[in-house]
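A protein record pairs a chain with a discrete description of its three-dimensional fold. The following entry can be read in just this way:
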Amino acid sequence: MYKGSPITWIVDPLDGTSNFVAGLPWFGVLIAVMKDYIPMAAGAFIPAGKHLYYAEQSEKASLNGRIIHVSKAQALRDVLVAYSLDYSDNYIDTIKETAILAKLVNNARNIRSTNCLLDFCYTADGRIGAAVNYHEKIWDIAAPWLIVKQAGGKVTDTAGKKLDFMVSVENYKKDFPTVASNGHLHDKLISLIHDN
């Protein structure tokens, strides 16, 4: 909250910066409007293709004005899963993430990744069944959280718990390990992530 206002805007003017710099078309703009730390309206614009995703708490999510829905698939084997793997100074964390990736490869139809808003937007419109990213920031995930949710999906942390969108220095600095899915696949994904 700023000066006592219950409204907070969270804007990521260039989600997918490294893609943009490399000349890849996988980037866009994310905007979320929160009230009392809950996203109430959200937009995601992908310039390549001029795709505008929009959602608000009282309405179904849309793509260029057309209502969208998450995939109806009941099994991971039937869907593509997006998994983003970022650089880490902690080699052990990287090894742990690659182990999770290996489990997903062996259980999903296939793995894809743009490492940006497209992974979550495509989960919302059903092209991808789920997306996993351990290194989201609050400005990366506030808008996609609402878009996937209002498309009928589910978004949690990698332990299956609700995401905390409180505006604070701690939340600004921390990573939001995130799983988004069509809902049917969520428990299976969480189980795979934590299966030793």
In short: The longest strand covers residues 7-15.
